[in-house]
Amino acid sequence: MATSRYLVLWWTSGTPYAALFESELAAEAASRARNAVMVTFAGAAVEEVVDWYRRDDDGRPMPAEWRELADSSRIVEFLRSTEEREAVEAA
Question: What residues make up the domain containing 59?
C-alpha cells in the first residue's frame, strides 16, 4: 500500500513556492495559512486536489480546477521512483 504524500503549492508576490509533507495535518495547516493548493498523492496516483483559497460556506477547501499539463510525465516518474525507493527500503 502506498503512503500518502501532500504537495502544497502557493504564490507570494508573484513567486511560486512548494512544500512536500508526509503529515496530512501539517499539510492542511500550511495550506490554510497560505490559501494554497494541496495535492494528495498515493504512490503515483493523484487522490485529490483542493484549493484552500476557494472554500465552501463551512470553510472546507473546494476542489481545484484541473487542467492538463503539457508534460506531466516528469511528475509521474518522480513519484514512481519515490515509491520504488520506499519499497526497497522497506524490504
Answer: 4-90
Q: Which of 6, 49, 48 is nearest to 27 (CA)?
A: 6
Exposed, middle or buried by CB within 10 Å (0-12, 13-18, 19+), for 74?
A: exposed
CA distances from 19 to 12, 32, 91 (A): 14, 13, 28
pTM for this entry:
0.61
State yes or no: pLDDT of 36 exceeds 80: yes
Q: Given pLDDT bands bounded at 50, 70 and 90, which one contains residue 1?
A: low
Task: State residue 42's pLDDT score.
Answer: 84
Main-chain phi, psi angles of 67, to 5 degrees: -130, 145
Instruction: Please give the tally of structural domains in the chain.
Output: 1
Whole-Å CA distances, 50 to 12, 32, 77, 83, 90: 18, 11, 22, 23, 30
